[in-house]
Amino acid sequence: MNTSVVRYFGGSALLVLALTACGGTANPAGAEGGTASQTPATASPAPTPTEDAFKMLTSEELGEIAGAVKDADNVALAVMPADKVSQALDQMMSIMTEVQVEPAECNSIATGTALKPDSNTTMAVGASTSSNAELSQTLSLLSGVDKEKLEETLSVRSKEIADCANLSMNIRGVSMTATTKELDSGSDTPGAIAMQTDVTLPTGGTQSTVMTFAVKGGVLISAQASGTGVTSANLASAVALLDQAAALID
């Protein structure tokens, strides 16, 4: 995995991008689109007042949302070009096929295969320009996944986190262990859940990631803070990214 993938998807992406890494190939258009569409994806009856309209957004629309979100230093996120997102996902998916996970039933949460790509999936990724080895803040937006599949994935996420609290992975002969626990997201976005993953590297060092995710209007929003010095206290910065993005999805 090259440095650009690590920068945009987090140093411990192999373990924590269970809901975003396999979102599919982003549209090859640029990320500077217009205002997000206000039209539901289908002509189905209007949702109940408590349910957000389920939309299909283009990569340009998602990129505009990501670019309007600001990091903890009040600086707008840098949006990864859509073609680079596609390349990074292809690279990560290739690596995923070589990962061996124990216990085996934790393969989905460990390798990011909870959601399968399809031809309609679009994605945008934004990163804080102050990201470094100690702290990297990223935001991922995914659209086009079947509504029922999204709801199903989120509904079982807490159970998967509990069942896979301790696991090991072997990637091309390199072994790592990880512990995962659910956190209280404290998000203003309904249904948001959060988790922390601590990866013990072959060198003996630790790479930690706090991550929060939710669905708003059919868009899967995932935000994370990752780095060598990350603790649960860094979750607040990730939640801020998620809530800003959710507020921009009508």
Characterise the protein shown here:
Helix content is 28%, strand content 26%. The protein has 250 residues and is α+β, with helices and mostly antiparallel strands. The protein has a nine-stranded antiparallel β-sheet with strand order 1-3-4-9-8-7-6-5-2, sandwiched between helices.
List the helices and strands and how they pair.
Layout: H1 3-9, H2 13-16, H3 59-68, E1 78-79, H4 82-96, E2 99-102, H5 107-111, E3 122-127, E4 136-143, H6 147-163, E5 166-171, E6 174-183, E7 193-200, E8 206-216, E9 219-227, H7 235-247
Antiparallel strand pairs: 1-3, 2-5, 3-4, 4-9, 5-6, 6-7, 7-8, 8-9
Quick rundown:
By secondary structure, this protein is α+β, with helices and mostly antiparallel strands. The chain has helices at residues 3-9, 13-16, 59-68, 82-96, 107-111, 147-163, 235-247, and strands at residues 78-79, 99-102, 122-127, 136-143, 166-171, 174-183, 193-200, 206-216, 219-227.
Mean of residue pLDDT values:
75
Shape: globular
Low-confidence spans: pLDDT under 50, at least 5 residues?
Answer: 1-50
Helix coverage percent: 25-40%
Strand content: 25-35%
Task: Output the keywords.
9-stranded antiparallel sheet, 250 residues, disordered N terminus, alpha+beta, 9 strands
